[in-house]
From TrEMBL:
The lineage of its organism: Bacteria, Bacillati, Bacillota, Bacilli, Lactobacillales. Keywords: Chloride, Ion transport, Membrane, Transmembrane, Transmembrane helix, Transport. This is H+/Cl- antiporter ClcA. InterPro entries: Cl-channel_core, ClC, RCK_C, RCK_C_sf. GO terms for molecular function: monoatomic cation transmembrane transporter activity; voltage-gated chloride channel activity.
């Protein structure tokens, strides 16, 4: 493996920007194609359920069809296990060195199985698969053109940003999600590549789907400061809801695993969703049509029924491990909860009816923050998806309170929990194709390494610190070098030691 890092060369920005553009183009096209396929599949699936509900004689054929779809999806899940589930935990695990991945088979299986699951009506989203599809395109480009393992992973992360950007027409959210959820630290190099890929992918998506926002809420006015106490209550409710959602999702997965046969698990899921599609089709599928239909005139009882029904069908859909995300369904759940809350408070306190849409949007951001624990992504996502900047302050307030409440309840971020479960369930298949690699980490504020000399820090055996990047300059490290919060440290390690080295460095550098 070549250890020459192109980041040190004079043309580093041009080269990385060129690779990022390629990643954005390929990831944006594939994620947009997947988005189009899901929209068509959902439309055809709902039409099929409407037809069968009017012609009950075809129910046996529907059951046979669902069984066939379950068989095909199970085949892809067993043959290509990296294609199962959301895709975001898999990308995180790949970037952290836990998994190796074949980009082609994963992308192919994810695309086909995810589309079939949406055709069957499962309550799954496109964002997690889009992130994984984008990461696969980043892996494709980087495996041919990137020189170092570090840059390969940065381009994979750029592909993930591009995938989310194309899924929602939300480039800023795609960048922020990668920084806030995947890496959990800020790096100028990562920001540069992710932003480039996300912007290019957004351009591709806008060519295919237009420039309009994903959601079409009518924002007429803003919430008065005198009514902000309602936002505090909303944030508290969403914090509890997010913690309960995470617990229920993990518990339902554990219960579903008691069914030893993967095919029976998937078949049970498809049959439950099929029965729901015949009896209550409003709550199956991604929920995009449902979200657009929310209004104050729907009535409190019906909104509560939708909230409970969508919650249950989402748990059933994801627990079996079928390829598909939880990102969009949890936004729909947040909108449902916000609609219930808005209906109650508008009636009780005689508030203007146009605040209904405001409260729905705020609830979506708060729910996302409480579940995923990425507040900035949630705020930016709702701003970009609604096309309105009129509610930044209330978005921040609700998200902050929801975050704090969920944290006090000791609810772990859902994607971290899902990754932990994946690592516990299977023998970790670490990619050891390269003998040596470099990776970057940051010295966090208020950490044990802040203001300490290198001679006072016991680095893991076989872990070599090759560079300290501070204030735009590279420092050659030695024993008397004093680390500072915000320093970017570049380490050289053996590829086979990556997993344990990352964990040990986290403890040595950043834990109090």
């Amino acid at each position: 493996m070549k250890l020459k890092d192109i980041e040190k060369s004079t043309n580093k920005n041009l080269y990385l920007l060129f690779l990022s553009v390629l990643v954005g183009l390929t990831a944006g096209f594939l994620a947009s194609l997947y988005r189009l396929a899901l929209e068509k599949a959902e439309t055809w699936g709902l039409s099929l359920y409407r037809f069968v509900s009017s012609h009950l004689i075809f129910i046996p054929l529907l059951i046979l069809g669902l069984a066939f779809l379950a068989f095909v999806v199970t085949f892809f899940m067993k043959k290509y296990p990296m294609s199962s589930g959301s895709g975001i935990p898999q990308v995180k695990g790949q970037l952290q060195g836990y998994f190796k991945n074949n980009w082609f088979t994963t992308a192919f299986a994810k695309f086909i199985a995810g589309t079939l699951a949406m055709f069957a009506g499962l309550s799954l989203g496109r964002e997690g698969p889009s992130v994984q599809l984008g990461a696969s395109m980043g892996q494709m480009v980087s495996s041919r053109l990137a020189e170092t393992e570090r840059h390969k992973r940065i381009l994979i992360a750029s592909g993930a940003s591009a995938g989310l950007s194309a899924a929602f027409n939300a480039p800023l959210s795609g960048v922020m999600f990668t920084l806030e959820e995947v890496f959990k630290y800020f790096s100028p190099l990562i920001l540069l590549t992710c932003m480039t890929s996300a912007m290019v992918a957004d351009m591709v998506a806008r060519i295919m789907f237009g420039s309009g926002p994903v959601f079409h809420f009518q924002i007429v006015g803003s919430i008065e400061l005198s009514n902000y106490w309602l936002l505090i209550i909303l944030g508290i409710i969403l914090g509890f809801f997010g913690a309960f959602y995470n617990w229920t999702l993990l518990t339902s997965q554990n219960l579903m695993k008691k069914i030893k046969s993967p095919f029976l698990r998937v078949l049970l899921t498809f049959l439950v969703v099929g029965a729901t599609g015949l009896l209550f089709p409003n709550i199956i599928g991604s929920g995009h049509r449902l979200m657009d239909s929310f209004s104050l005139g729907m009535g409190l009882a019906f909104l509560c029924l939708i909230l409970i029904g969508k919650y249950l069908i989402s748990m059933v859909s994801y627990a079996s491990g079928v390829p598909g995300g939880i990102f969009f369904p949890l936004l729909v759940l947040g909108a449902s909860l916000g609609a219930v809350f808005a209906t109650i408070v508008i009636s009780l306190f005689h508030l203007p009816s146009h605040l209904f849409a405001n409260l729905v949007i705020l609830a979506m951001a708060g729910t996302f923050t409480a579940i995923v624990r990425a507040p900035m992504t949630g705020i930016l996502l709702l701003v970009e998806m609604t096309g309105s900047f009129d509610h930044l302050l209330p978005l921040a307030l609700v998200s902050l309170i929801a975050y704090v409440v969920a944290d006090l309840l000791q609810s772990e971020p859902i994607y971290d929990s899902l990754l932990d479960n994946m690592l516990k369930e299977k023998e970790i298949d670490v990619d050891d194709s390269d003998k040596q690699m470099m990776f970057e980490t940051i010295v966090q504020f208020d950490s044990v390494a802040d203001r300490k000399k290198l001679s006072e820090i016991h680095l893991p055996e076989g872990c070599l610190l090759v560079s300290v990047h501070r204030s735009g300059k590279d420092i050659i490290p030695h024993g008397n070098t004093e680390l500072q919060a915000g320093d970017y440290l570049t380490f050289l390690i053996r590829r086979e030691d990556e997993v344990i080295a990352r964990e040990q460095l986290r403890q040595v550098l950043n834990e109090k």
